[in-house]
Each structure stands twice: as C-alpha cells, then as structure tokens.
Amino acid sequence: MRAARFTSRSCMLFCRSSAANMNPLPINWLLSLTLVFVVSEAGLLLHKTDVLIYNDLDGGTDLTLHCKSKNNDLGIQHLAYRNYFEFNFRPSFLGNTLFYCSMQWNGTMRWFDIYVEGRDVSRCIRCL
Length: 128
Prior knowledge:
2 domains, signal
C-alpha cells in the first residue's frame, strides 16, 4: 500500500478548494460590520466647527435666541447688547448638518439657518 504524500503544494491546493466551498455569508456579514464601524468612527475625524452669534442690534437692544439641530437643542439664550453666544460641533460625514435659530427682538421673531453644511463647510471652520 502506498502512503499518500502531502506536500506544501497539495496542502495549498486543498486549502484553496476548502475556502472556495465555504459559505460566504459570515464573511460578507463580517466585512459589512467592519465597514459600518469604520464609517461610524469617521465622524470622530472631522474637524470641529465653531459658530458665534454676536448681538449688535441698533439701540442696544437685547436679543433672545433658541438654536437647535435635528439632534441637539441648545436652549434659549438671552444676549444683552454686544454679547455673544458660541457653540461648536462636528459636522456629519453625510454632509447634512443643519443648525437653525429663532431670534426675537423688539417684538419681532425670525428664523434663520445659522449653519447649513452644504453652504458653509467650505467657507469656514470658525463661522462668525
């Protein structure tokens, strides 16, 4: 009886054929999970953006503002004449960050889009 010989080449061929017959579902799932993790962590690499709102209304008028985004409510702020309110955040890697504020002074109320990523991301890192 002749014994079978396994050389490194025959083992390599065996390993390749075994891998070819494996179910690709777990490997695809693992690669997808890794991709989701990398994309989630990519947000940590984006620069911080600072927004500063300065009250320079005529006549020394006080300003009341309430700023928020889809995920963050920054609360109501009362700004005396020549005071400011500042906040910062990391823009979304999806490119859809939006902060808007209601502003009230002398009985007037208006809404403003304070930061729109598509409009502002290339203009500034510290938006004034």
